[in-house]
Amino acid sequence: MPARAGACLGVCAHASFSAAFEVAMSKQKVQSEAAPAALGPYSQAIVSGGMVYCSGQIALDPRTGQFAGDTVEAQTHQVLRNLQAVLQAAGSDLGKIVKTTVFLADMGDFQAMNGVYAGYFPDPAPARSTVQVARLPRDARVEIEAVAAL
């Protein structure tokens, strides 16, 4: 029995799924001049599947390339400003972050970092993990990476 004109025979569903999967899984590099340039072979962020995946930010002032202070409070403020700049370049913002990972050089800085961090995220705050690491790039005191919706 010949197929009717316009009949799909199961191939169309596969083609539609493949096209949708390819679009959803494509990736776009995000670059912001208002945040420090990447210190290695990675992107500041990648947009894929309606989400923004931000690389970890440390407290470098994008104008000077120097740390924006020595305290964990000052560094946390700058890290979050850097993340905001990257997210804005992607078409998102801090309010759309769904998950962060905070890396501390010293877990003794947790309360101070947390006090600053809390001021940037209204309820409901993003899911978060916080870990102490042996060392951060350029001996930063805090680094934060994030995943946000567009």
TrEMBL record:
Matching CDD domains: YjgF_YER057c_UK114_family
Keyword vocabulary terms for this entry: Signal
Pfam families for this protein: Ribonuc_L-PSP
Signal peptide range in chain numbering: 1-20
UniProt key word DNA-binding: no
Domain of life: Bacteria
GO cellular component, one term: cytosol
Gene3D superfamilies per the UniProt record, alphabetical: RutC-like
GO MF, one example: deaminase activity
Keyword hit for Thylakoid: no
InterPro entries: RidA, RidA_CS, RutC-like_sf, YjgF/YER057c/UK114
Family: Belongs to the RutC family.
UniProt-recorded name of the protein: RidA family protein
Biological source species: Vineibacter terrae
Lineage of the organism: Bacteria, Pseudomonadati, Pseudomonadota, Alphaproteobacteria, Hyphomicrobiales
